[in-house]
Write a structure and sequence with these properties.
This protein is an alpha/beta fold and 409 residues long. The chain folds into 4 domains: 9-25 and 183-329, MoaB/Mog-like domain (Molybdenum Cofactor Biosythetic Enzyme, Chain A), CATH 3.40.980; 30-48 and 150-181, Molybdopterin biosynthesis moea protein, domain 2 (Alpha-Beta Complex), CATH 3.90.105; 55-143, Beta Complex (Molybdopterin biosynthesis moeA protein, domain 3); 337-408, Beta-clip (Beta Barrel). Helix content is 18%, strand content 31%. The protein has 7 helices and 28 strands. The strands form 8 sheets. A 6-stranded mixed beta sheet has the order 7-4-6-5-9-8, with no helix packed on it.
């Protein structure tokens, strides 16, 4: 029986990146309010400072800070009121020594003033004079011009996933259209003679289809556009025909199941044939996930992936390879992670890296990682895990209390 020729995780990733060089996802211009959860395909640079002028943080009186020195409840300072700034308007007066002017929250600080005394610490002595009961330092209750965003600053970097806060920043700069990446389109094919729709009661020897549902949800969680999901029997020619049809419309065709070297496993042959012999990876030195196959068809620009049939293995390989590649190609940040101490000793898998699921436990100010054990065909193990860490293929194991980097699922 032919054995899989495995690649390390690092070598497999490098091979995919090299094969898809120049195949960066296309970009599209969107209205700002339509861009939520999309990935920026350009840096956002500030063409102006924010705020554009000095603003008051409170309702109060703009003053020269030195005039308030020594002011207290028992010994107020008396200042002459020379004007009032209206909300949304500019100041038409100058604050000089011994004078002040009223400013609302967000209002423009008049020329000459360098601080604001909160209204609660002020009292009108008469129509033109103000008693100040608080001593303020230079810059107190004032937002300087450009204090939030400087002119010329790269405010949001290419590859950022747009959240409500990014939309707010762009609105503050007057950016109402943004260039974002078009998400990869994906077709998901789950194969197996034993698979039935989840709505059916399986007969002896049958199981409900899990992978097409889990992988579809996983793809959408990463921003991919799922075009089609189908469940097919392990018949090579009909399966190959569906793959070829899908390659005409999809950036990524993913086949779950049929990737090992069993009697009816035809995925490897199909990927070789539909990519014109351009299969890149025939197995990963990874537990779980060894029977994973990747091919790239230059003529259609389609990545064709054969994932293991076991749900846990399929989802973890999707996470470590497919999602990683998409994030890399769209300049996204590395996955969120934290360091945690192991709760127990853990043996490694000789010759293979191990993707170990863990549950995170917080004790006082530190996190601990408790291994979640279960066979790769048991989907419930994923629901009990918060994340995973990678044990290197040359590691004999991990010792109790040793720190590991845990990536969130």
């Amino acid at each position: 029986m032919e054995l899989l020729k495995v690649h390390t995780l690092e070598a497999a990733r490098k091979k995919l990146v090299n094969a898809m060089e120049g195949k960066e996802p296309k970009s599209i211009r969107l209205n700002l309010l339509k861009s939520l959860d999309r990935i920026l395909a350009q840096d956002i640079m500030a063409e102006e400072p924010v705020p554009a002028y000095r603003r008051s943080m409170v309702d109060g009186y703009a003053v020269i800070s030195g005039d308030t020195g020594g002011a207290s409840e028992g010994l107020p300072v008396l200042l002459r009121v020379v004007g009032e700034v209206s909300m949304g308007g500019s100041s038409d007066f100058i604050v000089k020594a011994g004078t002040c002017g009223y400013v609302p929250t967000g209002g423009m600080i008049p020329e000459g003033a360098d601080a604001v005394v909160m209204e609660e610490y002020c009292e009108l002595f008469d129509e033109d004079h103000l008693a100040v009961y608080d001593s303020v330092a230079h810059g107190k209750n004032v937002v300087s011009q450009g204090e939030d965003i400087c002119h010329g600053e790269v405010v949001i970097k290419k590859g950022t996933k747009i959240r409500p806060q990014e939309i707010g920043v762009m609105a503050s700069l007057g950016v109402l259209e943004v260039i974002v990446y078009e998400p990869w389109t994906i077709t998901i094919i789950s194969t197996g003679d034993e698979l039935v729709h989840p709505s059916l009661q399986p007969l002896p020897g049958e199981i409900r289809d899990i992978n097409s549902y889990a992988l579809s949800a996983k793809a959408e969680a990463y921003g991919l556009k799922v075009l089609n999901v189908m469940v097919l029997k392990d018949d090579k020619e009909p399966l190959k025909e569906k793959v070829l049809q899908s390659m005409k419309t999809s950036d990524l065709v993913m086949i779950s199941g049929g990737s090992s070297k069993g009697k009816k496993d035809a995925t490897s042959q199909i990927i070789d044939e539909v990519t014109g012999g351009n299969s890149l990876i025939h197995g990963l030195a990874l537990k779980p996930g060894k029977p994973s196959i990747f091919g790239f068809d230059p003529s259609t620009g389609t990545l064709v992936v054969g994932l293991p049939g076991h749900p846990v293995a399929a989802i973890l390989v999707f996470e470590l390879m497919v999602a990683w590649l998409y994030k890399h190609m769209t300049n996204q940040k590395e996955d969120h992670s934290l360091f945690a101490r192991m709760t127990t000793n853990l043996a490694g898998a000789p010759g293979r890296a191990t993707c170990q699921l863990v549950r995170l436990i917080k004790k006082e100010e530190e996190y601990y990682a408790e291994p979640v054990h279960g066979k790769s065909g048991l989907i419930s193990t994923l629901t009990r895990a918060d994340g995973y860490f990678i044990m290197g293929q040359n590691q004999e194991g991990i010792k109790k209390e040793q720190r590991v980097e845990v990536f969130y699922l």
